[in-house]
Amino acid sequence: VSAAARTPVVPQADLESFQAHLNQSTRILALVGAGLSAASGLPTFRGAGGLWRTHEATQLATPEAFGRDPALVWQFYSYRRHMALKAKPNLAHYALAELARKKEGFLTLSQNVDGLSPRAQHPAGQLKLLHGSLFDVKCSGFFCDHVERNNYIDPIVPALEIPTDESDPTTTEAVQARELDISDHKVPLPEIDLDHLPLCPKCMKGLLRPGVVWFGEMLPRDVMRDISDWIKAAEQIDLIMVIGTSAKVYPAAGYVDAARSKGARVAVINMDRNDEPASGLYKGDWFFEGDAAQIMPEILR
Ligand code: BV8
């Protein structure tokens, strides 16, 4: 192992006190967000180059947006599927999967839809996907319950082909360029005919949509129930690790306070000490500043 890889990324005292607590912990939660996958090359939402910097999330990640312009919303998600399929899990994903194998009382709550934790062989029984997955598609029709796993076709339909320069076809300037027809993309961005969007094979009426939870939508009922059963069953929660998330989206962020109310000590792993989320999260017991892909293997060793 190269010397650089061995250089500790966290202060020794913090590392020792954290690991002492971790070793005697049995009920452990992790709430993870986009920062966990940053080292895998996937843009976060808020950070520099983040998805929300180039889009209004509420313009694209809502049922209303899909109703208004399903082609644009599908282009946004097709681009993210494409990026996520090309990405590889990083050492943080593997470190969490490893901890789950060692500690059956450890549960990861993931806000990420990129499929990287499952691909890192994180034990499925100890991973809850709060916001669904880019690789599930479901019928957008109210009366149809069709859901299918689709993590092998990219693009999901030919009309959603990513521009050859692999740029995001839904950035504000790309959309404006298309509207103003002054596209500076090498490949003019296609106008997409709704007939060319994926159609539900079951009812043959509703469009298929990405199997993610949009703003204003409930989180999957079974996921919420499993998590609340897990929290209720715990006499006390020993530790919650809050990894690569600005913890601004609810009800996901609410699990930090739920863990605290059961006695959990809080370890925050984040690139940016100043990304102070509303929930005052950083009054945690440990704050490990830096890239999750470097820190997680170190502190969970
Ligand atoms: C619901 C899937 C109600 C789609 C997502 C006021 C109070 C409480 C709630 C609300 C409110 N106003 C509105 C609401 C509701 C809303 C909400 O919370 N809004 C926020 C904006 C205030 N919530 C909802 O709508 C939820 N549903 O409330 O339903 C309801 C009730 C009854 C009946 C019907 C409905 C549903 C929310 C789910 C939205 N879907 N994702 C998609 O992905 O496209 S949210 C999406 O954004 C992510 O999943 C994630 O949750 C969130 C982004 O957060 P992060 O993952 O934290 O990413 P971010 O970029 O913000 O931060 C990255 C962090 O990592 C940063 O801190 C950075 O410093 C750090 N970092 C960067 N690099 C690294 C790093 N750290 C370590 N290493 C690195 N290398």
Automatic annotation (TrEMBL):
Residues 8-301 form the Deacetylase sirtuin-type domain. Gene3D superfamilies: SIR2/SIRT2 'Small Domain, TPP-binding domain. The active site is at H131 (proton acceptor). Zn(2+) binds at C139, C144, C200, C203. Pfam families: SIR2. Keywords: Metal-binding, NAD, Transferase, Zinc. One of its GO terms (molecular function) is metal ion binding. The keyword Transferase applies. The keyword Transmembrane helix does not apply. InterPro entries: DHS-like_NAD/FAD-binding_dom (IPR029035), NAD-dep_sirtuin_deacylases (IPR050134), Sirtuin (IPR003000), Sirtuin_cat_small_dom_sf (IPR026591), Sirtuin_class_III (IPR027546), Ssirtuin_cat_dom (IPR026590). GO terms for cellular component: nucleus. Signal peptide: none annotated. Belongs to the sirtuin family. Class I subfamily. This is DHS-like NAD/FAD-binding domain-containing protein. It comes from Amniculicola lignicola CBS 123094.
